[in-house]
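User: Before I run my own analysis I want an independent prediction to cross-check against. Here's the chain; please return only the structure tokens and, at the end, one sentence I can use as a sanity check.
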Amino acid sequence: MGGVNSPAVKPGDTVTAGQKLGTVGTISCECAEEAHIHLEVLQNGQYLDPAKIS
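Assistant: Structure tokens:
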């Protein structure tokens, strides 16, 4: 996982709201930005819009 120190999950894990994913790290090309997360949701080979998942 890019920019994550000490990941607490791995690809394919099921996660729940509030679960710790890891700790914030850095990515050299994004060092001028505030800490943030890039979230991707993949289901059956298709990317889903995380904002539309409840």
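Sanity check: Residues 17 and 54 are 10 Å apart (CA to CA).
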